[in-house]
């Protein structure tokens, strides 16, 4: 459809000029503002409205199920040869290669690539672009402001029914593996489907344990042999000791005979230092400490009953909970008991009675951890009930330093192998405390909540930097602590020595004071006993004593009353005297 | 042909060069100065690496392309010059 507009104009009007004329301005319309019109409108509060002209989108997160990957290598086999060439036949391959070399494309490409490559090679030879400058300068380690610790890895119990991680042991060389013993420590809570296995974890792989150890009964404690990193010894819930060789598989190589083992769960087993590297000893709450040679597990090589009366009476014995052995003092060892007493023993004593040297009491509950300070072997740390205490070997009656009473039970503790004044404790509320008593004595330097459930075990790696803690639900957490807490500070040894000496001296003085007071008391009571004997042999029976006490009491009361009566009389007389005087006067 | 030989000889004579391998697009080593098993291993692995590197570069910018790849390791440096049909791989030990 065409839109056409026809325009006509007279020919004579073409070319005529326009005659413009001036005219004054004319007002055509004037509309004045009418205020009455505003009544039709309501003023609206100005408000900010944001408008965006984009697509509406929403954010959503999805977590996929954990995907188990396993790394594996690939073996390369020669391939890529065209069908007509048999790769095994030398002739055919050579012929093929010669053919390719004659190809023009090949020649051109290679010239180009070759020149490019030469440039890079020459570059490499001229300057080493990856050269390390300032290699000799030592980086001065500065103390960071805040001590800190962070979780590096978490190893969870792969079984459905979770058991407590009761003990951890680091691999002796390089510490790239962690052996964790799992068992259920609650009485009669073991269910049928609870597995007995304990695992060795590789620190890099948290999905799957590197190796499983399958004991006959769940393991309560587990230790790597420091001399041979393939051998582990474990103490189990039923009292037996078993040892594994990781090269031989998951089953124990040998187990101790049930008749000669402990009768209660074995709470601690430690390797001893010996020429053969096969000796170890174990402790359990049945009151015995047994020595084993793993080559012959049918019966223990030595036995010690922790009877404080030194008679070897098993009924009297104290149940052992923790053991301590320092390789620099091979004849001495210490046992922490259920009754809160630390027993120091000498292995080389000739008679069993002499084996128990002395006891240190002061705790109210079982001693869960016992360790000598690696720098000052005369001082040791005990962790029990709600406190951790540091003791000196010379002072028997009390510890030289102790922490305040916490709200939660302390379940394990150990010294840092890198710093003499740092030790770690874990509590039943899932917190890890790092104490540095040269920095702060009242509170831990760092207190971290590792998990919500109770922590049962703790182990520091030999470099003092990593530590593993095991919890009630079988989760072993690997933490890394800041370098300030694991590098030896200047003067630290001297300061720690000074502190230990000062506290030891204080305790000695207190002990001496107590002793003096006790002596005085004794001498006083002895004197009074002598007097009584002079009066007439009073028999030391309880009733007599009570009657005696009653008599004395009444005598004292009567004496007081008489005294008061005399005083009253005297006062009255005085008063009357005064009155008399007054009367006389007046 | 002769120029190719000359180029390769020149490269080989440079200081520190340990081996030269020429691989075609299918992964067949055409020319090599190394023993067969190592050559096969290098050819197979480096082929995959170059493919991956090239696809990475092109994913980021489709106009771009891989021209050279250098893999520096503790013991030596592997230099790869890729092309449409062939790769030139040179292993050099650039210590002074």
TrEMBL record, chain B:
Cellular component, GO annotation: cytoplasm; cytoplasmic dynein complex; microtubule
Any one Gene Ontology molecular-function term assigned to this protein's record: dynein intermediate chain binding
Function: Acts as one of several non-catalytic accessory components of the cytoplasmic dynein 1 complex that are thought to be involved in linking dynein to cargos and to adapter proteins that regulate dynein function. Cytoplasmic dynein 1 acts as a motor for the intracellular retrograde motility of vesicles and organelles along microtubules.
Chief location category: cytoplasm
Coiled-coil residue windows: none
Gene Ontology biological-process annotations: microtubule-based movement
Protein name: Dynein light chain roadblock
Record keywords, A-Z: Cytoplasm, Cytoskeleton, Dynein, Microtubule, Motor protein, Transport
Span of domain Roadblock/LAMTOR2: 4-92
Gene3D superfamilies, sorted: Dynein light chain 2a, cytoplasmic
Pfam families reported in the protein's UniProt record: Robl_LC7
Keyword Cytoplasm: yes
Keyword Transport: yes
Gene name of this polypeptide: DYNLRB1
Membership in a protein family: Belongs to the GAMAD family.
